[in-house]
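Quick one: structure for this chain?
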Amino acid sequence: TTMSSKYLPLGATLAFVALVGCAQIPGPSEVQTGKDTAAQTAPNAASPAGAAIAAAPPAPAELTAQQKLAADGTLAEFDPAGSELSDEAIALIAEFSATAAQAKRVEVTGHCDKRDNEKNAKQLALKRALVVRNELVKHGVANKKIRVKYLTSDARQAVTVTLK
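Got it. Here's what it folds into:
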């Protein structure tokens, strides 16, 4: 095989994830800020160029939990020393469980930044993964399909999931 054909499946997967994530992110015209958008986009009459300068576009909105799941597999996020699921994470897991139940295998990876929790990062990352696994099982995903892992080498306080 050639080098380019070796990376084709990876490229196709990344393109799919990018398209799914972009399709769900609202455009600037769909985000309501409660401010008068006409005032934000009106030309700056006091500037020397007159109508040539417009206000800067608004900052992109925070991604929803559903968009994070589509973008990088994040199923739950945690406080730096926490392992308790938020109501939002429980709702997302419940919704995601039907899809996960159809997969051959579900990889649940607990993340904990060892710089934040030097002494117990491994235990905390594993505990987070187990909490999510238990919630998936509670919502109908077969325990035998779930593989639990942990990572302490990245700067995340989350659990990610990969369907295989």
